[in-house]
Amino acid sequence: MNTYIARQPIFNMKKQIFGYELLFRSSEDELCFIGTDAEHDQATSHVVIETFFSRGIESITGGKPAFVNFTSNLLLENTATLFPRDQLIIEILESVKPTPDIIEACRDLHRKGYKLALDDFFYKPELEPLVELSRIVKFDFLANAPQDIAKMMKRMNLRGKWLLAEKIETNEMFDLAVSMGFRLFQGFFCSKPETMSSKTISPLKFSYIALMREVSAGDEMNVQRVAKTIRDDVALSYKLLRLVNSAFYGLRSEVTDISRAIAVIGSIELRKWIFMIALMGLSSDKPDEIIKMSMIRGKVIETINSKYSLVKSDESAFQVGLFSMLDVLMDVRMASALDGIHLADEVVAALIYQTGPLHDLLELVISLERSDWNKTDAIISMLDINAKTITEAYLDAIKWCNSLAI
């Protein structure tokens, strides 16, 4: 049975992470699943429970609330009570009918302190008891016109509710949802550049770009010059030392010297960490989630490539994921963002020309992020990769990213 697990970020008005929706695909072929709803729920429940208890929910969400879809059977079976109420938000699917038993089950969860969310909400009078019990109401901005959403909002008593706008795909849609009174947002609006024209780069950001160009020189990289550049920049020094002293390395004593930090990292890994630190600097005016997603993508692609050797260099594999949203961080086209950074031909092919095996791996990770299971299946089949590999690599990459304490 192929099992896919993905998470999608949910932002607040400041574009900071409020929580993550956890998405599961527990059958080998979603379209060909044959069985009762109860059997399907049992499979989904098994995936949720096994994942949460084997890995820990905190390792997947970084301590943020987890939004999990619940069907009628999962609600009636009281599955939610297996999880801590401060870590779980129960999403009631739009297919759930508000029968007396369902309402009573939700009322019981509400009494026990669990937060309920109504998914893909469309107003019907019979849903009012569930609206009353829910803390969060989600409106789909692709399935409904904004004026229709506004009309539904007027018909309901939403006092004290957190309104969540989902399927927000552009920054313009985000601004519109804010103006309508929404306070939580889900979608991929943060994954796109806000402008696609030439843009003046601040001196601070230019220093990070210059550092990336310096360390991308390969064997010609001057380690002493790189160390001095970092040492002369308080922010860079702090970020490097924080990475080196993170749980990932598990050092017995704290490292406080830049040269020592570079020695701990080692020459092979130096470029990777410098690229990461520089990207963190470039992301200072962007949501933190962008750099986290970039790092997770890089780690996933590196892990898969190390197992299947689609290209010779694992470093190239990591760079494709890490730089996959450099255009978003700099608000320019990818070719302009990579200008002056010396990268392997296979990395350039993947990021600028969107060709080659590393581009296929990047598309695989993105399809997983977006819970596009059919595309995930197609790419896995094309590359002849075991489905379990991508799931394990994705969850391990999230844990790795969390361990860096960014």
Polypeptide structure, described:
Strand 5, helix 5 (128-133) and strand 6 (136-140) form a beta-alpha-beta unit. The chain has an eight-stranded mixed beta barrel. The model is unreliable at 28-36 (pLDDT under 50). It is 52% helix and 11% strand. The protein has helices spanning 37-55, 57-61, 72-76, 100-111, 128-133, 146-155, 171-179, 203-215, 223-231, 234-244, 258-265, 267-282, 288-308, 314-322, 326-330, 334-337, 345-351, 357-369, 373-383, 387-403, and strands at 4-11, 17-25, 66-70, 88-92, 115-118, 136-140, 162-166, 184-186. The two termini are 35 Å apart. Helix 8 (203-215) runs antiparallel to helix 12 and helix 18 (357-369) packs antiparallel against helix 19. The protein has two domains: 4-191, EAL domain (TIM Barrel), CATH 3.20.20.450; 203-403, Hypothetical protein af1432 (Orthogonal Bundle), CATH 1.10.3210. It has 406 residues and is an alpha/beta fold.
